[in-house]
Amino acid sequence: MQDFLCGPLGKIGTAVCRIGLSASYRPGRQTVFKALDEGLNYFLYFGFDNHMTSVLRETVPARRDQYVLATGAYNWIWWHQNLRRTLERRLRQMRTDYIDIFHFLGVTRRAHFTPQVREELQAVRESGLVRAVSISTHDRKFAVELAREGVLDAVMIRYNAAHRGAETEFFPQLPESNPAVVGFTATSWTGLLRSPRGYPKGARLPTAGMCYRFVLSNPAVHVCLMAPGNLKQFEQNLAEIRQGRLHEDDMHFMRNFGDLVHRRKQYLR
User: Fold this and answer.
1) 20 to 30 A from 226, CA-CA: which of 16, 32, 136, 175?
2) What class does CATH assign to 2-264?
3) Which one, of 137, 219, 213, 142, lies nearest residue 178 by Cα?
């Protein structure tokens, strides 16, 4: 169980709980405090979540080296946020001297990672204000190329039972330098929690906890992000996650169900 939930964060080296907490759905102050009490130490925060930011400002500074604070700038369809300005804003919000991992979020295709973005990300890397730079992407082959070129210290990659291409196109192709791998969309944006078209009524469905355990059962993933919307969801997920790796029959079920969801092309993002 220790190896399942704890380990080093790739080349960054910090010891982490392999479940990270994301602010995507505004989990609330109680949830963040509970996560800290339960030993979580990887937090992905954004400018819009004042609850997570305020709790971490209160608790992290006294033991800053024991936590991994991650944030980033967004790539939108028509423009991207300036990476350096966004970084400085996030530092002010968290009242910290440095960010552990700074992501360029939303690189859905190669054209988004322009020469300008590459230069901005390198400048952020050299600023002394971050320990590592990363992108979030669905383009596994491109992420491998950037990691091999030494452009990235970490990669935030989509991986779940319905999207398993990383098992062949990403994890085994990474360089020996071993960038930190952060998995996201473990539930395929809840698509793995609902019945696909034509699925028998009342038949077994995965739970969110099973989805997280599926991802964590792959040792190539250093951190799997959880994005609960409230304390109850967090506690239910964590209780299941603590059961450890999925057993063989549950893993078989998850893969078959993921294939069905993928074939139906439902809820896939």
Assistant:
1) 175
2) alpha beta
3) 219
